[in-house]
Every structure is written in C-alpha cells, then in structure tokens.
Amino acid sequence: MGELYVMDHPLIKHKLTYIRDKRTGSKEFRELVKEVAMLMGYEVTRNLELRDKEIETPVSKTTSQVIAGKKLGIVPILRAGLGMVEGMLSLLPAAKVGHVGLYRDPETLEPIEYYCKLPSDVEEREFIVTDPMLATGGSANAAITSLKNRGATNIRLMCLIAAPEGVKAVQEAHPDVDIYLAGLDEKLNDHAYIVPGLGDAGDRLFGTK
Ligand SMILES: O=P(O)(O)OC[C@H]1O[C@H](OP(=O)(O)OP(=O)(O)O)[C@H](O)[C@@H]1O
Ligand SMILES: O=c1cc[nH]c(=O)[nH]1
Ligand SMILES: [Mg+2]
C-alpha cells in the first residue's frame, strides 16, 4: 500500500483556510494554490537522490551535494491541476510537464479523458501528478492508469484536499503510488463534492461558472 502523507506545517494549514473560504476570489485563490503547492513540494521531493559535488567556497574546497539529476515530470490533471504546476516548477525548474485532460461527468461521476501529452522518455521519469481535489478518486485513478499505460513506473499523487473515499480508491487501485495531501476532509456529499472542501477547484481557479 502506498504511503499517505498529510501536511502538518502551520503555513500550509493557514493558507488552506483562505483557499477554503468562499469569499476568496480567483486572483487570491490562484496565488494561494500556487504557494501551497510550493510548500508541499518540500515534502513531495524529500526523498530525491543527491550526489556529491566538489566545489570551492571563498574560504576552502569542499564536497557538497546537489540533486542527482533524476528526470522528473509534473503532470497536472486538467483543468484544476494546472494551478499547482507553477509552484512545483519554481522548486524543480528542470522538470518536464505532461498534461492529462479529464473531467468528471456530473451525472455518472465517471472520469472522461480528453487529452494526454507526456514527455517522450516516460519510462525514465519520476512523475508527480497534481490535482487540488481527490474526491471519489476516479479522476486520479484514470490519470495514473493513463500514465502507466504509456510506460510510467514511478508516480506520486499530490492533492490539496481529499475525501477518505478518494484516498481509499487510489490506494486500492494503485498501491505503488504515495499520496501527499494538504488536508484530509470528512466525507463526500450527495453530489460527490468534498465536505467541507473548497467547492469546485477548477471554477474557483479560472473564474468559470
Ligand atoms: O475524484 P473525482 O471524483 O474524480 O473528482 C475530482 C476531480 O474533479 C475535479 O475536476 P473536474 O471534473 O471538475 O474538471 P475541471 O478541473 O476541468 O474543473 C477535480 O479537479 C478532480 O480532477
Ligand atoms: O469537491 C470537489 C469534488 C470534485 N471536484 C471539485 O472541484 N471539488
Ligand atoms: Mg471542476
């Protein structure tokens, strides 16, 4: 079973409160989502490999460490996952960005894939899939399956808020995938929205509806 990491940093908790607040408009919402993604990035990248590098400081020679240069890929689930990309790229500027386009059919709640474009060397990359919301888990599962069908073997899932149902669904379908959350909420409502959640992440990010 994949690991579940729920962030407990005060800055993340603080910013998540304003992301949830219905009075927060799109501009501030976008900024906060970007900032929380960046802060979460510290945890999501905690186990990146390092290698030694010989350098010279103004005082002496020394051996220091840099990221080993493993290839990384960030894959937002369109649309809402896009809001988390910039924050991650500010930490990992060399990462490539793939896109999986999915929407959840409002009647059936089934994910419908309409786009997928990944970096060409899929097999060699470590992927971080981003989506603010993990509700039933259908969209995340479909995105992860899509990556695996194209050859990806190393995948992490990074979401702002999840319902327990979504976490369970991903853990069952993809036990090799670790999940990183800023917050784990109570439940889903009758429309499969997360309670208390933040509403519709895509609409709040992009001002639609
Ligand atoms: O876990 P699930 O039950 O599948 O629900 C979560 C999905 O729903 C939202 O996307 P939505 O379908 O609203 O598309 P959008 O990002 O284009 O708004 C959200 O961003 C997730 O991708
Ligand atoms: O709460 C939810 C559930 C699905 N999609 C969202 O944007 N929010
Ligand atoms: Mg939406």
What's this entry about, in short?
With 209 residues, this protein is of the alpha/beta class. The protein has helices at residues 10-20, 26-44, 85-91, 138-149, 164-173, 201-206, and strands at residues 4-6, 50-56, 61-67, 72-78, 96-97, 99-104, 111-117, 126-130, 133-134, 154-162, 178-184, 187-188, 194-195.
- Which structural category do the helix and sheet elements fall into? alpha/beta
How large is the radius of gyration? 18 Å
- Number of helices, counting only DSSP H or I runs of 4 residues or more: 6
What does the main sheet amount to?
9 strands, mixed
Q: What is the mean pLDDT?
A: 96
Bound small-molecule species: 1-O-pyrophosphono-5-O-phosphono-alpha-D-ribofuranose, uracil, magnesium ion
The percent range for helix content is 25-40%
Order of helices and strands: EHHEEEHEEEEEHEHEEEH
List the uncertain runs.
none
Taken from the alpha-carbon principal axes, the silhouette is globular
Count of individual beta strands = 13
Cα(first) to Cα(last) distance is 38 Å
Share in β-strands: 25-35%
Organism: Anaeromonas frigoriresistens
Protein name: Uracil phosphoribosyltransferase
InterPro entries: PRTase-like, PRTase_dom, Upp_B, UPRT, UPRTase/APRTase
EC number: 2.4.2.9
